[in-house]
Specification:
This is Oligopeptide:H+ symporter. The protein is mainly α. Helices cover 73% and strands 3% of the residues. The chain has 17 helices and 7 strands.
Amino acid sequence: MASSLTKDSARPGTPGSEKTFFGHPRGLATLFMTEMWERFSYYGMRALLPLYLVAPGGLHLPAGTATAIYSVYVSLVYLLTMPGGWFGDRVWGPRKTVAIAGGIIMLGHLTLALPSSGTFYAGLGLVAIGSGLLKANISTMVGHLYDGPDDPRRDGGFTVFYMGINLGAFAAPLIIGTIGESVDWHLGFALAALGMALGLVQFLIGSRNLAERSSVVPTPLSGEEKASTLRKAAIWAGIAVVFYAIAGFSGHYTLNWILVPLTLLGVIIPTMVLVRIKRDKDLDHAEQSKMSAYVWFFLAAAVFWMIYDQGGSTLSIFADSSAENSVFGWGFPVSWYQSVNPVLIMALAPVFAWFWLALNRRGKEPSTIVKFGSGLVLVGASFFLFLAPLSIAEGGHKAAALWLVAIYFTQTVGELLLSPVGLSVTTKMAPAKYASQMMGVWFLAVTAGDATTGLLSIAGVDLNKTGIVALEATLAVLAGGAVWMYRKKVKELMGDVR
């Protein structure tokens, strides 16, 4: 990546003489590489996770339990972005928070690499905590590199940064997945730790190129607030320790004692956050109206992510047991399916950007609501497609790999319609009072969707059965249709936001 750094021939100190990264501040290279390696470790481990959970050489759990664990883990990562942002804003500042987060993630992957089921869940917890801390703060530091929201390089900078995410996500299953499945599961997890270590070293070496404000704690806690926060944290930690000690020593403890509370939190906390903002009497009429409209988007997004994130659990477990994982006679590891989405994102995102711009010039670009509804319909259509390989498998045959590729392709197109629009509409509709918190609220839609999947799995619902897949597909299509049918009402609630 160093070869892409260029230096103006002018003498140091003159405008334009600083080193750049593809024409952007040099600090972007640091954040690009840090995020790329962090995503490499995260998506590599995530590709292995459901397969390791069901494998005879792994934990050998039932598919339903594996799906529940996977869903709870993913929902926890996104749930923890809110306290992660709080730590960056009030305790350590973004730069220190990211450095600490990288260390926690690396420790978590190393813990997963230990050949012991007893430490496995502790490792998952550490990776989730570290990911929540990092995810909430590294994007903030990208913004710090630019001269305010009107800097013409800002959008391009975020585009380059998100390319790092997809590069890491694409390479991880091919490398970590292959080693984990073909050589040793724990060696695969150790490779994820190595990836995060490389990212952390890159971050510490290149941090001198970051903006000074990334080291600043924007709204530090007062002494009284620190004492109160520590006291409350100690009380809740003590309650948890006592509760689980009693459950353990009495012989009643099972995995569900952890999974059920976490899945319930994944549904309850997003609901509480939305209700709290909606009921805030400080919001004026226009802001209240926009929040009413935002609830529509939030619920629709939760349905979308509930289905979409099963690409890493339900579909992966199906591929492991019931698919012919080969193309023209050439076999490949199941985890490689997880590279399909990021490579499609990198290929299709520029096409979509061009397409919307072309339609906009002609005054024919679809509205935010139409894009959102279309994304929901497509993710529903992907599960209608899933019915075909399920039927083939029920007939005693192996389903072709291209069926799964078609499902991932349909979901990716749906993601490109819904996810960027969701991020944009979140920033546009955020009440001034909650401007910095609303991105965390958007991530809570992912939490709610994955927590719902977790609850279904814990309740014993087999997500690889034709009936439940058809039901989920129908729910998504109906939700997309409802968004489209009520588009005029939602537009009125959105006020001046388009």
